[in-house]
Amino acid sequence: MEGFRFGSTQGAFYIMPGQDGWEATYGNETLGAFSSPQQAADDLARGLTCPQLSEIDTSMLEIPEKLSDWEIVYV
After folding, report:
1. Per the domain annotation, does 19 fall within a domain?
2. If you ran DSSP here, which 8-state letter would residue 27 be given?
3. Which of 3, 5, 11, 70 is most exposed, with the fewest beta carbons within 10 Å of its own?
4. Which of 8, 34, 31 is nearest to 21 (CA)?
5. Record's superkingdom (predicted)?
6. pLDDT tens across 51-75, in order?
7. Distances (CA, A) of 22 to 12, 15, 36
8. Domain assignment of residue 69, given as a range
9. How many helices (H) and strands (E) would you count in the chain?
10. Phi/psi at 63 (nearest 5 deg)?
11. Which residues of 22-59 are buried (b: 16+ CB within 10 A; e: fewer)?
12. Domain count across the chain
């Protein structure tokens, strides 16, 4: 199975297959469930709002919206 990784200046973000679709993670925190990896990348690039990221504005981290700009990782 494959997922996606983006290394930002604040740490790595992952988009991985989850129980009911896809999950975005940062560190040991799950940031939310998404219907597709593209939706997760879009939300992270535009500024995902969730309690786990109260100190970080993801829209300021230059996270790419295009999944082709993310590293492919295998699980």
Report:
1. no
2. T
3. 11
4. 34
5. Bacteria
6. 777 777 888 889 999 999 999 999 8
7. 16, 7, 6
8. 8-14+37-75
9. 1, 5
10. -75, 125
11. bbbbbeeeebbebeebebbbbbbbeebeeebbeeeebe
12. 1
Q: Which residue has the tokens 């829209």?
A: 59
C-alpha 69/C-alpha 75 separation (Å) is: 19
Asked, for residue 20, whether it belongs to a domain, the answer is no
State residue 50's pLDDT score.
73
Residue with tokens 């040991």: 28
Residue 49, pLDDT above cutoff 90: no
Q: Calculate the CA 72 to chain-centre distance.
A: 12
- % of the chain at pLDDT higher than 90: 63
0.70 surpassed by pTM: yes
Residue 52 resides in a domain = yes
Tokens of 31: 């940031």
